[in-house]
Amino acid sequence: MFSRRILPQLTEELQHAPAVALLGPRQSGKTTLALEVAKTLPSIYLDLESERDRAKLAQAELYLTDHLDKLVILDEVHRAPGLFPVLRGLIDQARRNGKRAGQYLLLGSASLDLLQQAGETLAGRIAYLELGPLDVLEIGAQAPDTLWLRGGFPESLTAPSDARSLRWRQNFIRSYLERDVPQFGPRIAADTLRRFWTMLAHHQSGLLNMTQLARNMGVDVKTIQSYIDLLCSLLLVRRLPPWHSNIGKRLVKTPKIYLRDSGLVHALLDIERKETLLSHPVLGASWEGFCIENLLCCAPANVQGYFYRTSAGAEIDLLLVWPGGELWAIEIKRSLTPKLERGFHIACEDLAPSRKLVVYPGQETFPLHADIQAVPLAALCLEVATKTHA
Fold first, then answer.
1. Residues contacting residue 299 through CB under 8 Å, at least 6 positions apart
2. What is the Cα–Cα distance from 290 to 132, expressed in whole angstroms?
3. Which of 42, 143, 210, 260 is packed most tightly, with the most Cβ within 10 A?
4. Residues 312-347: tens digit of each pLDDT
5. CB of 252 within 8 A of CB of 242?
């Protein structure tokens, strides 16, 4: 089992909140992590995709009342939305009896759907955590380039060959399209959504142009918006917002769009091996998206990520905004001898960030200029994850 960085935080939340929702895409390791937690305290596990476990909850209040002394783990909880009012009543009952934390761990494969259900009935009683695929600080002996090629889903990363890894991801995409998407969103033909998903893979790290996407798909802009909202809710796509500030510049106001797992980008484009990837047009965009996703996953929850671009061409790939307003400007280059364009320097003059960094695929940190450092991805992820902010 991989060591997940979120485990201490999950344990702490269970010590303070009556319910904790652990959200993340399918196969990212939520169940494995929950069962690891279950080893440390009295608990029961119910998989709501199992007919047998759902039958136990036919009279949910009666069944759960018998287990108020345990942590109840409810996997794929979105399949039983009627449970939330029951959980609220049991949480309040336990509070009156002096138990105020560690009653329910809810596992879900989507963000928006689950948050809306839980938010209506469990306000003030639930904490939310997100578990994505593995990041560079969690992969142990695996090479970072293997993580980049195959993505962070454990089964894909640890497959015996690149071919088997690609096959796993293709099956994963198919099961999402045919089985999971219909659960969460309006009925969309699997072929249509696959075509759209593939289009986003070709457009990795690009500005989100919904009008162009709508024209290419032969649908209207509202339909494209609903597709993107759905994939974001399933935690498969990220919209990176543009930096907005009154600095007297004409700023780009359109978000950038990323498939959050680089392995899915490569599977949708049928890229099996690293050699193929290195000669593919998506190379730079794939590396940029991979680095940005890792940095944002490793950053504390109160750190915000943006990109910066002006109409005159000043640009920063990733702008980390720390509590209190401190800025880190991060440029991403897929070269062992990274060179910075003039646009990065102009953007830094506009924003005056406290740190100027270039992520590159090498192993050592070294100065590029007097105030700019070239840093390996894993080293910067570790620095971001462990930075304390006064």
1. 305, 320, 384, 385
2. 13
3. 260
4. 889 999 999 999 999 999 999 999 999 999 999 999
5. yes
Nearest to 316 by CA among 355, 345, 296, 287: 345
Sign of CA dihedral 377, 379, 381, 384: negative
Q: What is the pLDDT of residues 275-284, one digit of tens each?
A: 999 999 999 9
Residue type, 259: L
Render the burial of 209-228: b for 16+ CB within 10 Å, e for the rest. Answer: ebeebbeeeeeeeebbeebb
pLDDT tens by residue, 121-175: 888 889 999 999 999 999 987 889 999 999 999 999 999 999 999 999 999 999 9
Q: Which two tokens stand for residue 161?
A: 């060959």
3-class SS at 36?
A: helix
- Domains recognised in the chain with CATH numbers: 7-130 (3.40.50.300), 144-386 (1.10.10.10)
Task: Give exposure, 155-179, as e/b (b: 16+ Cβ within 10 Å).
Answer: ebbbbeebeebbebbeebbeebbee
DSSP 8-state assignment for residue 307:
E
- CB neighbour class for 294 (10 Å; exposed up to 12, middle 13-18, buried from 19): buried
Measuring CA to CA, how many Å separate 362 from each of 114, 303, 379?
40, 26, 11
Report the alpha-carbon distance of residue 330 to residue 372 in Å, rounded.
Answer: 10
| Cβ atoms of 257 and 206 closer than 8 Å | yes
Helix axes 221-233 and 112-121, enclosed angle (nearest 10):
70
